[in-house]
């Protein structure tokens, strides 16, 4: 049997949560011996086609293309983990949810008609089934490593399943 495969995907985000994974350095090297990192464009242009055992999803869904892509990723992933405030709650981009995004694009872009965007910024879970969520901005390195090790070993991660916030 081959090594389990890990894929990392970016949507609208600052890349900070992916950097948390890269910052794991020693642990990531050890992990890399046990798994195939099949898709992680922040670290390598090499891409192994799916399906994938574990997908980490960073960023919020903000464009029609994002909507299509998150469904494709879900279909390709045995376990999907949303990482960070952008992927779990819409992130700072979700401020647009309380305003008219067309007004913003008309102010920011010289040719707003070329901008194909959604009226809202939403978490992955509003579009597809999400198996685990890691909260934080950025995510906690210890929780990320625990989640990856547990999932790749076939056990339940020992991480919080709910937010510390009650609202
Ligand atoms: Fe960046 Fe924070 Fe979004 Fe992570 S949750 S991608 S650190 S803005």
Automatic annotation (TrEMBL):
Residues 14-151 form the NADH:ubiquinone oxidoreductase-like 20kDa subunit domain. Coiled coil: none annotated. It comes from the Bacteria. Keywords: Oxidoreductase. The keyword Oxidoreductase applies. This is Oxidoreductase. The lineage of its organism: Bacteria, Bacillati, Actinomycetota, Actinomycetes, Pseudonocardiales. The chain holds residues 1 to 167 of 255 of the full protein.
